[in-house]
Amino acid sequence: xxxxxxxxRVPDVLLSGNHAEIxxxxxxxxxxxxxxxxxDLYAQLDVSSKQxxxxxxxxxxxx
Length: 63
Known about the structure:
Layout: E1 4-5, E2 8-9, H1 12-16, H2 19-37, H3 39-43, H4 50-62
Helix pairs in contact: 2-4
């Protein structure tokens, strides 16, 4: 797969082939987009999975 698409750099994790890391990256980006675009839904988010809790902590640390 190309490392660049329409002059956008593809994240290294997507090129790695590690399916678990790709799934984690996709979920984290999904949570980030929800926070940015739909703060009302993000505020009501009920996080029951430990992985999502960890991802949310990572997102808060990146702010």
